[in-house]
From TrEMBL, chain A:
Keywords carried by this UniProt record: 2Fe-2S, Iron, Iron-sulfur, Metal-binding, Nitrate assimilation, Oxidoreductase
Keyword Oxidoreductase: yes
Domain Rieske: 8-107
The protein's name: Rieske domain-containing protein
Organism of derivation: marine sediment metagenome
Keyword Signal annotated: no
Alphabetized Pfam families for the sequence: Rieske_2
One Gene Ontology biological process: nitrate assimilation
From TrEMBL, chain B:
Similarity comment: family membership: Belongs to the nitrite and sulfite reductase 4Fe-4S domain family.
Record-linked CDD domains: NirB_Fer2_BFD-like_1, NirB_Fer2_BFD-like_2
NADH-rubredoxin oxidoreductase C-terminal domain mapped to chain residues: 317-384
Segments forming domain BFD-like [2Fe-2S]-binding: 419-466
SUPFAM superfamilies named in the record: FAD/NAD(P)-binding domain, Nitrite and sulphite reductase 4Fe-4S domain-like, Nitrite/Sulfite reductase N-terminal domain-like
Protein name in the entry: Uncharacterized protein
Coiled coil feature spans: none
Nitrite/sulphite reductase 4Fe-4S domain boundaries: 627-744
Organism per entry: marine sediment metagenome
The keyword Oxidoreductase appears for this protein: yes
Recorded GO MF terms: 2 iron, 2 sulfur cluster binding; 4 iron, 4 sulfur cluster binding; flavin adenine dinucleotide binding; heme binding; metal ion binding; NADP binding; nitrite reductase activity
InterPro entries membership: BFD-like_2Fe2S-bd_dom, BFD-like_2Fe2S-bd_dom_sf, FAD/NAD-bd_sf, FAD/NAD-binding_dom, FAD/NAD-linked_Rdtase_dimer_sf, NasD-like, NiRdtase/SiRdtase_haem-b_fer, Nit/Sulf_reduc_fer-like_dom_sf
Region (Disordered) residue spans: 820-841
Length: 113, 841
């Protein structure tokens, strides 16, 4: 699995303002990348509650020890690490591997289930 | 050992609830469910929402995942056609046989269609399933007029649906009044006149004899006297239990239908049970979902070994909104027994009718009828259900709001009082859940299910929660969130006193963790109120709430709206033209708002800077429709034109709007200025209302429209311009300092100890000695105002965030529009299939 991972460069770390997210397109998928004090995270950009591609525009933070982003539409929280929804265990978004190398950011469009 | 076989026939609302109750318990059944319809259970109570855009998915109660997760075999589109009680075997519609140890009938009921000649003609429908609605909609497309046969609860709901479908709507009722089951004669009459006023024609006392070809419409209904032509007929003449299967296999059936059950929901065969609308308990069929849910709960408990679980009847009180008219019926609404005493009020002007039915001694309430205003429903229901003693003069309970109404405190309710009728949750159960640690509404909902169905009991649940927390000595936690052990007011002072300029600074000195979507926007707002720095500064941008984040209002599809400021609602034709040109250029949906300005919808995030560049170039500014800040100052045309005007309200409104534009506050602020006492600008519903007098201005404060309207109160009279502005400066700054997060001035004022008099003391008499400070703080915000959009379009760093994708300039292809009345609107999910898309942006 790890070997076949296709890393796609999506831009410079400096393009991401600390504490915010941005949308990127990787192999046709819309992915939200977040830059936090605890590193980079990537989730589906699609918010399952509104069906709008907006998670990258949510506020990040922590709730009871879990790093989260709040959907900007109806405010549900998604775990930045796993994509799980804190309010509704039936809902989940995909999370993706993301790394920084020499100031450049790379995302792999393979789902981390 | 083989597991015991449990078969459930019917996957309607009650059948589904039974399964949910069952899987919550320890059971050792292998469960199989027969579902005649083509989809798992859905919310029939909310069926009409389908016409206003709810999809079958939105209404769904059951799901394939639910059945899979709990190992339940779910047979979709398969009805049971026969039961062999001797062999304990049922036969499905595709011929397969299934044996059972226990069998549950949850087959519900079917709409009764009176035996009228012609009732099976085309475009004659019933109203029970999603499939029915699909058929009704198809017929409505080729109809101009629709008739509902039956003026009961469901009939009126169906009438609303026909009206919403754009048909000229009639209701035909056989009885002499509407809702004969629930209302008395006066209540029925009041309802009739209200509904007629809404454009639905009501015919009572009419028996339909046959339906034949019409001349100007598809059908003609022929009555004993007279006739009526129509294109569509909807029968809503009551329901009948679906007891066919039970009849055929010889179970005991009631005289007028229904499978006879005992308190254990057991039929005359001990291996067969019946619940929901098919069950006849003590000679009654309950046509409501709550009693069915109660049966489901009791039966599940019983099958899992709780032999004490018993269904012991249910309350049939109802509160609803029919065609926009509030109607409530409690207990013995009709009065009935002669010994009951009755008192009522009737106000034909406002269309309100209320009646109380009292016990013989006048001490208890046994029933009530409410039409036009059901605000007293919750309290009255509690009096009936708990046999509470009535106050001295019971009529005061339904007196118009101006009179002093005795309050029914939740403390007065016994533990057995039912708080949530949909889910049968008592006050006692809520209290024990609170003791067990459920100290928020969310937690209570999850634990007890209270307030999770119709939501009608939400206020009561909250009252019980608050009262209980107080009495258990649990401190009501006013901390902003888990990251700051301070109230908003506390944080405001820390920021102000210590000169804190960023969230990171405040968090490291006075908070813990990383912050969240509660504290970040709250602190961003405080920082802006104090220092008025640019909100999209890299230090602040990650704190801003959704709308502030892109200086526009987020819409359901992820696009944004654009609202330029139009101070006082005054606009030159030239500027109006600019708005039209911008809307055309970017194809924006254009609407005049309730705040006297124009909203342009459907801009993608990447289009916002270009749109605003055009607007700013033409002299427009941000309207802050996205901010918790000043929205609009409405005005009437005032003394310049109006023959009654005594002051120039437009000039004052523009002055005030430009003075406070951009001021960030705990919640949004709305103002209005009227040129005379006729009050055409509705200033008395605003946070700040200004009304002209011969001598100057009257200042009204802390009004609110919206969810909980509150009239503004007269704060000071006959003020000159300078004093007026000084008071407003002080008042707003005092509000900014002391209010809670997202607390409008109305709620702030209601919670203020000392009330209006105290507020007047602080603002007018300066008892705290802070007036000068408040004024100078306000002045510094006013002096540092810059239009956020003007600033943004000149700031390359800020603009970077408006790209659609960091690595790609192609816009989001999933934002799709369709055209309606000559403008675009977001496509609904069912319209997104490629064939229907008229346009992709
Ligand atoms: C556009 C408009 C409706 C319209 O088509 O006319 C509107 C639209 C919205 N209103 Fe409103 N309100 C609009 C006038 C009003 C009014 C009437 C008025 O201002 O005279 C009221 C009642 C008056 C009042 O607030 O006291 C009103 C009471 C609300 C409320 C309830 C506030 C309350 O205290 O109960 C909300 C919800 C909230 O703020 O939490 C709300 C929230 C909203 C939001 C922001 C909902 C949201 O979060 O998406 C809507 C989005 C606006 C957008 O995308 O541009 N809107 N809203 C009106 C814009 C006026 C303007 O020019 O700025
Ligand atoms: C438009 C509308 C509005 C309503 N509004 C309210 C309201 O505001 N408040 C309220 O309390 N109630 C309301 N009701 C009533 C409420 O919906 C019913 O009380 C509730 O649905 C009863 O549940 P049930 O499971 O007994 O029957 P149903 O929900 O009718 O379910 C029975 C199911 O069994 C299936 N079935 C029947 N026979 C067989 C068979 N032989 N094999 C397999 N499956 C079979 C049927 O197809 C159906 O799906 C409303 C009803 C309607 C139609
Ligand atoms: S009333 Fe206001 S908030 Fe509600 S839908 Fe209409 S515009 Fe949106
Ligand atoms: S009364 Fe309907 S949810 Fe509580």
């Amino acid at each position: 699995m790890q070997n076949s991972t296709q890393w796609v460069e999506i831009g410079a770390l400096d393009d991401l303002i600390p504490g915010t997210g941005a949308a990127v397109r990787v192999e046709g998928k819309q992915i939200a990348v977040f830059r936090t004090d605890d590193g980079l995270f990537a989730l589906d950009n699609r918010d399952p509650f509104s069906d709008a591609n907006v998670l990258s525009r949510g506020l990040t933070g922590d709730i009871a020890g879990r790093l989260v982003v709040a959907s900007p539409v109806y405010k549900q929280h998604f775990c930045l690490k796993t994509g799980e929804c804190l309010e509704d265990d039936q809902q989940k978004v995909q999370s993706y591997p993301v790394v920084e190398r020499d100031g450049r950011v790379f995302v792999a469009a393979v789902g981390e289930a | 050992m083989n597991k015991r076989q449990l078969l459930v026939i019917g996957n309607g609302m009650v059948g589904q609830r039974f399964l949910e109750e069952l899987v919550e318990l320890e059971h050792d059944f292998e469960v199989t469910v027969f579902c005649e319809e083509s989809r798992p259970a859905y919310d029939r109570v909310q069926l009409s929402a389908w016409f206003s855009g709810a999809t079958a998915d939105d209404l769904a109660l059951g799901s394939v995942e639910f059945f899979e997760q709990h190992g339940i075999s779910f047979l979709c589109s398969e009805a049971v056609v026969a039961i062999d009680r001797g062999a304990r075997v049922v036969t499905g519609s595709n011929g397969t046989q299934y044996s059972y140890d226990a069998l549950v009938l949850a087959t519900g009921s079917y709409p009764f269609v009176p035996p009228i000649e012609g009732s099976d003609r085309e475009a004659c429908h019933v109203y029970r399933t999603i499939d029915d609605l699909v058929a009704i909609k198809a017929s409505a497309d080729t109809s101009r007029r629709g008739v509902v046969v039956g003026g009961g609860l469901l009939g009126l709901e169906a009438a609303k649906a026909l009206k919403d479908l754009g048909l000229e709507t009639h209701v035909i009722e056989f009885a002499p009044r509407l809702m004969a089951m629930q209302l008395d004669a006066s209540g029925g009459e009041m309802l009739r006149s209200k509904i007629s006023a809404l454009g639905v024609t009501v015919h009572t006392g009419k028996a339909t004899q046959r339906i034949e070809d019409g001349s100007s419409h598809r059908h003609r209904l022929v009555f004993a006297e007279g006739e009526l032509e129509t294109d569509l007929v909807l029968f809503s003449a009551g329901i009948r239990p679906r007891d066919q299967l039970a009849r055929e296999c010889g179970l005991e059936i009631g005289e007028r239908g229904g499978v006879v059950v005992d308190n254990q929901c057991r039929t005359s065969d001990p291996a067969i049970f019946a619940i929901g609308e098919v069950a006849l308990w003590q000679n009654r069929i309950y046509g409501l979902v709550a009693p069915g849910y109660d049966m489901a709960r009791k039966l599940a408990a019983q099958l899992c070994g709780d032999l004490t679980a018993a269904f012991t009847g249910a309350d049939m009180s109802t509160k609803l909104k029919l065609l926009g008219v509030e109607v409530g019926s409690i207990g013995m609404a009709q009065g009935g027994a002669p010994e009951y005493r009755v008192c009522s009020i009737e106000d034909a002007g406002s269309g309100v009718y209320k009646k109380l039915v009292l016990s013989e001694d006048g001490k208890r309430l046994v029933g009530a009828v409410l039409v036009g205003d059901t605000s007293d429903y919750d309290a009255l229901l509690q009096y009936v259900l708990n046999a509470l003693e009535l106050p001295e003069s019971p009529i005061s309970l339904i007196a118009p709001a101006s009179g002093e109404k005795p309050m029914l405190g939740v403390d007065a309710l016994p533990a057995s009082a039912q708080i949530c009728s949909c889910n049968n949750v008592s006050k006692g159960e809520i209290c024990s859940a609170i003791s067990a640690g459920c100290t928020t509404i969310g937690a209570l909902k999850k634990e007890t299910r209270a307030s999770s169905t119709c939501g009608g009991c939400a206020t009561l649940v909250k009252q019980v929660l608050d009262a209980e927390l107080k009495s258990q000595g649990i401190e009501i936690n006013n901390d902003l969130c888990e990251h700051f052990a301070y109230t908003r007011q506390g944080l405001y002072h820390l920021v102000r006193v210590h000169g804190i300029r960023s969230f990171a600074e405040l968090l490291s000195q006075h908070g813990h963790g990383k912050g969240c979507d509660i504290c970040k926007p709250a602190v961003a707002s405080i920082l802006a109120s104090c220092w008025n720095d640019y909100v999209l500064d890299p230090r602040h941008v990650g704190l801003q709430d959704t709308n502030d984040n892109f200086l526009a209002n987020l819409q359901k599809d992820g696009s944004y709206s654009v609202v330029p400021r139009v101070p006082g609602g005054e606009i030159t034709p030239t500027k109006l033209l600019v708005l039209a040109q911008v809307a055309q250029k970017y194809d924006l949906y254009t609407k005049i708002t309730g705040g006297q300005r124009i909203d342009l919808f459907g801009a993608r995030v990447d289009q916002l800077p270009a749109i605003w560049r055009d607007l700013v170039d033409a002299g427009f500014e941000s309207g802050h429709a996205y901010g918790k800040s000043l929205r609009t100052v409405k005005s009437c045309v005032g003394s310049s034109w109006c023959r009654y005007g005594v002051q120039d309200s437009v000039s004052m409104a523009i002055y005030v709007e430009e003075r406070y534009r951009g001021l960030r506050s705990p919640h949004k602020l709305k103002m209005a200025v009227s040129g005379c006492t006729r009050e055409c600008a509705e200033a008395q519903s605003k946070d700040v209302g200004i009304i002209a007098t011969e001598q100057g201005w009257n200042l009204y404060v802390c009004g609110n429209g919206g969810m909980r309207p509150r009239h503004a109160e007269l704060f000071a009279s006959d003020l000159d311009d300078q004093t007026l502005i000084r008071y407003i400066d002080r008042l707003l700054m005092f509000y900014i300092q002391t209010a809670d997060r997202l607390q409008r001035t109305s709620v702030w004022r209601d919670n203020m100890e000392g009330g209006l008099a105290y507020l007047q003391d602080v603002i007018i008499n300066d008892v705290l000695g802070i007036a000068d400070e408040l004024e100078s703080q306000m002045q510094s915000v006013i002096d540092t105002y810059v239009c956020e959009w003007k600033r943004t379009i000149e700031d390359p760093v800020a603009l970077k965030r408006f790209r659609p994708f960091l690595n790609d300039d192609q816009p989001d292809e999933q934002i799709v529009y369709v055209r309606e009345r000559g403008q675009k609107r977001p496509a609904r999910a069912d319209e997104k299939s490629p064939a229907d898309v008229l346009e992709t942006v």
